[in-house]
Amino acid sequence: PASGRAPADVIDYHGGLGDLGARVIRVIHAGSISDDPVRALRAARFAVQLNFVATAETIADARAAGRLLSTHTSPERLRDELSRIMALPTPAAAIARLDDWELLDTVLPEVAALRGLDQSPPHHEAALPHTLRVLRYLAQVELMVDGAAIETVWAEAAGRVLAPYRARLVAHLDEGVDGGMSGRLLMRWAALFHDAGKALTRTVDETGRIRFLGHDETGARVTAAALNRLKFSGEAVRRVRDTVDGHMRPLLLAQEGRAPSARAVYRYYRALRAAGLDVGLLALADHLATYDGPGHDGSWENLLIVVATLLEHYFEK
Question: What is this structure's pTM?
């Protein structure tokens, strides 16, 4: 090693060097997690971030300590650790890990409520896995905004829409928001909560079709309550709430099959303000997650026309 020290020089009472080599996360005593329950979230984050495997005992202790997260951990510490999870390159994998470790119901009950919530076509999966898929697609959309090449069937056309505005979109996403968070992170929070209203609005009509009428507006209220509970700043709450509230707008505009009028664009930004940019990017990820790709009915092409018009008006007009 550059320090001139060998592994034999390290005082290692608990076999930590061996666990590092084997990529293992292991508790070292009975109170490792219960003494500070937020370590349960941190263990899940490390497992995903570092591609380590937690031992069965570690997972059991994390699950047992999960019930203490709401009573023995401040909202601010929960917010910060969850935000570190949401900032990972693969936040969907970490949220899935929280669900697998039975922590999601305690820290994000509004998201956990989507578990097992069936949806009608064109959705191809239930609400919670759909939400995680939106997060995965949003990560790819972000990479495209950043200028990375994405080798998928949908990326070429999307790239042409985003390319003229990449630098300005990056500046928008990386701009700080009150409370020390970036717009990029808050957009991810909005993706996580975008369907949170569905658990409260689900109905089934006489034909068996499942509907979630008003889930965007209801979800905005649910989101604001959750983020206020976690002590997000007022500005951050408004940004995420507006994104959730507006997430259906580009998809509905795309159903018209043409570019939105100047009046429609004006109403869009009057309602959403700067969150309108986040909504446009989120709509791309939401569509891709719904169809698990662009689909074959022309709706992807229509959505790209809408998003291109929204970006042009915001940045050029």
Answer: 0.94
